[in-house]
Structure formats: structure tokens, C-alpha cells
Design brief:
alpha/beta, binds NADPH dihydro-nicotinamide-adenine-dinucleotide phosphate, binds acetoacetyl-coenzyme A, 14% strand, two-stranded antiparallel sheet, Rossmann fold, 8-stranded mixed beta sheet, 12 helices, single chain, N-(1-d-carboxylethyl)-l-norvaline Dehydrogenase, domain 2
Length: 308
């Protein structure tokens, strides 16, 4: 009996995995271009979308640049580069996702923006299509409930930079069914990534641990314990982190860092997650880190210069 039911389950998983051929990506920022890159390289057809056509164009240029670097380093062949580029198409409206088997939302970390995307997306999708969110922190159960298919909704949380980082978190909402989870696991494994399964609690595993550390580094700056250079040097040289916490905050995006801290603060109702007022100030100034050329460092010159 057991063997029969395992076999039947294996067939169902294989069917779902084989069913993912075309992947839609909503949002062509730093995460969207990375996800499109690794999915296309793994043999999936990719449809890329953003509210701004210019953003899609610059995402394509970034993907091409990163693939070219991989060819130069001999980690992929020129043929693999060409084939990956040929597998990526773009769309200027959500109708372009009608034939997708899986659509990954990776727009800004704002719940109202994501809910609106799902509201507009669901009517154009096939009923069997899976929807995933790359959210860093927001409840997958709550996002799923805003769609017409909570059982086919899942969190697939990539790390930045996507082509380099080994890990992807998988987060089931309360209604996510086994076939969706297995299909997501198959998709992530096909891209050569390792999986950590997280329960659906604010900011999941990586950001539950990482973001309070970054927020504390910003408090350390705010309270004058050290300047930007000292804090980053301390954690790079003293704790062997590849980037200092303020450099990493700029890399992630200060708007995203603040949104994650707000989700932790509201979701866990504990003052230890209070976003540092200095982080709020930087975001209010539009100093969002590397993507806006200014954050804890100023990136407009030849090399980054600390802003404090
Ligand atoms: C916020 C969330 O929801 C979750 C998150 O993602 S949290 C953020 C998680 N990410 C991190 O913590 C990153 C920490 N930083 C690092 O690991 C490293 O600094 C780094 C990998 C980004 C760069 O490493 P480095 O050694 O300083 O630089 P460098 O030698 O230029 O790059 C290493 C490799 O990464 C590649 N790379 C660097 N930046 C890249 C990018 N943005 N896109 C694609 N590839 C990139 C380089 O091409 C290089 O590839 P090879 O090994 O094939 O040569
Ligand atoms: N940055 C990181 O390190 C990580 C981020 N994430 C998550 O990934 C998601 C994206 O982050 P990231 O790529 O860094 O952010 P970016 O700001 O780099 O990119 C977000 C993109 O989404 C676009 N966008 C905004 N609204 C819409 C919409 N309605 N439809 C389609 N596209 C839209 C933005 O356009 P415009 O700029 O014009 O508004 C922008 O191009 C967030 O949920 C974030 O939490 C997950 C892991 C790591």
C-alpha cells in the first residue's frame, strides 16, 4: 500500500514539475533580473514585466552583462549565454502571463502594491497556474487570501544577488497544497539552489535574523558608537561578514530594509524590532542605497564614500 501511494505521489510531483516550463516575473528590479537570469539559464522560458518599460530594458542589459561575465569566467558557455537570452521575452501588460505555468511576483515590498498586482493578474492566468511571491517578509497566507487560488500560492524567497547566493526559502501559506509545494521545490532545485523551508511568520528565517542585526548597526551609527566606516570594518574584519551591515543595507535597498522592520515590528508587536529613526530618515530623503546612488555611502564618485 505504502509503495503504491508513494509511487502515485511521485507521479503527481513529476507531472507538476514537468508542467513548469514558462515562468513569469513581475518586477524587473535587482531581484527580478536575477530570477529571470537563473531561471532562463536553467532552461525555463521567462516572461519579464515591470510598470516601466525602461526598467525591463535595463534589466535585460544587466542580465546580459552578468551572463557575459560568467562566460568570461568560464562558468557557462557562450552557447548557454545565447540560449538563456533567447528564452527571455518581455511584456508590457499582465496579459503576457496568460501562458505561464508559474508567475513570481517580485515588485516592491509593499503589501498594497502586491495585492493590487494579484487582483489584476488572477483573471488573466490559467486556472492551474501557480503564483509565488518573492516577498522578504509579508505573510504568504495573507497575500494568498487576496488571490482566487490560495492553494496554488507559495513564497519563493530568493537571496540577493540571485545568481550567486545558494539559498532559496520556501514558505507555505496555510492553504498551500502539496502539489504546489513540490512543484516549487522542483523549480528551485532545477536552478541549482538549496532550500530552507520556513513557517509563515514575519520575515521568515533569514530576514528574522539578518534585519534586526542591520537595524542594530544603524542604531549603533545613530547613537554615535561608531561611524559608517568603523561599523562596517568591525563586522567585516571582526566577524568575517562578506559585507559590513551598512554596506549590505545599501545593497538590499533601505526602503526594503525599512519595510521588513515594519513588518517585524507590527507582526510580532515587540519593541525590539522598532525601526531605527535614522533608517526612516534616509528612506524619507530618498537615499535608498545603491539603487538611488546614495545611502550610508555615496556611490556617485569613483568609489563609495561614507555619508556619516
Ligand atoms: C533582503 C532579503 O530579503 C534577503 C537577502 O537577500 S539578504 C542579502 C543576502 N546577501 C548577502 O548577504 C550578500 C553578502 N555579500 C556577499 O556575499 C559578497 O559581497 C558578494 C557575493 C555580493 C560579492 O562578493 P565579492 O567577493 O565581494 O565580489 P566579487 O568578487 O566581485 O563577486 C563574487 C562573485 O559574485 C558575482 N556577483 C557579484 N555581484 C553580483 C550581482 N549583483 N549580480 C550577479 N553576480 C554578482 C561576481 O561576478 C563574482 O562571480 P565569480 O565568483 O563567478 O567570479
Ligand atoms: N533587495 C533584496 O536584497 C531582496 C529583495 N527581495 C524582495 O524582492 C522584491 C523586489 O525587491 P528589489 O528587486 O530589491 O526591488 P527594486 O526596487 O530593485 O525593484 C522593484 C521593481 O518593481 C517595480 N514595480 C513597482 N510596482 C510594480 C507593479 N505594480 N508592477 C510591476 N512592477 C512594479 C519597480 O518599479 P519602480 O521602481 O518604477 O517603482 C521596480 O522596478 C521585494 O518584495 C523585496 O522585499 C527579496 C530578497 C532580497
Amino acid at each position: 500500500m505504502v509503495a503504491v501511494s508513494c509511487g502515485a505521489r511521485a507521479t503527481e510531483i513529476e507531472k507538476r514539475m514537468a508542467a513548469i516550463k514558462t515562468v513569469g516575473v513581475i518586477g524587473s528590479g535587482q531581484m527580478g533580473n536575477g530570477i529571470a537570469h537563473v531561471a532562463a539559464l536553467a532552461g525555463f522560458n521567462v516572461v519579464l514585466y515591470d510598470v516601466s518599460a525602461d526598467r525591463v530594458k535595463s534589466a535585460m542589459a544587466t542580465i546580459n552583462g552578468n551572463l557575459t561575465r560568467q562566460v568570461a569566467k568560464k562558468t557557462i558557455t557562450e552557447d548557454a549565454h545565447k540560449q538563456a537570452i533567447a528564452r527571455i521575452s518581455s511584456t508590457d501588460n499582465l496579459d503576457g502571463f496568460a501562458n505561464c505555468d508559474l508567475v513570481i511576483e517580485t515588485a516592491v515590498e509593499k503589501e498594497d502594491v502586491k495585492r493590487k498586482i494579484f487582483h489584476d493578474l488572477c483573471p488573466v492566468l490559467r486556472p492551474d497556474a501557480i503564483i509565488a511571491s518573492n516577498s522578504s517578509s509579508i505573510s504568504i497566507t495573507r497575500l494568498a487570501a487576496s488571490t482566487d487560488r490560495p492553494e496554488k500560492f507559495i513564497g519563493i524567497h530568493f537571496m540577493n544577488p540571485v545568481p550567486v547566493m545558494e539559498l532559496v526559502e520556501l514558505i507555505r501559506g496555510i492553504a498551500t497544497d502539496d502539489a504546489t509545494f513540490d512543484a516549487a521545490r522542483g523549480f528551485v532545485t532545477a536552478m541549482g539552489k538549496q532550500i530552507a523551508v520556513s513557517e509563515d511568520f514575519p520575515a521568515f528565517i533569514v530576514n528574522r535574523i539578518l534585519l534586526p542585526m542591520i537595524n542594530e548597526a544603524i542604531y549603533t551609527l545613530y547613537e554615535g558608537v561608531g561611524n559608517v566606516e568603523a561599523i562596517d570594518a568591525a563586522m567585516k574584519l571582526g566577524a568575517h561578514h562578506p559585507m559590513g551591515p551598512l554596506e549590505l543595507a545599501d545593497f538590499i535597498g533601505l526602503d526594503t530594509c525599512l519595510s521588513i522592520m515594519q513588518v517585524l515590528h507590527e507582526g510580532l508587536a515587540d519593541s525590539k524590532y522598532r525601526p531605527c529613526p535614522l533608517l526612516v530618515k534616509y528612506v524619507e530623503a530618498g537615499w535608498l542605497g545603491r539603487k538611488s546612488q546614495r545611502g550610508f555611502y555615496d556611490y556617485r564618485g569613483d568609489k563609495p564614500v561614507p555619508t556619516r
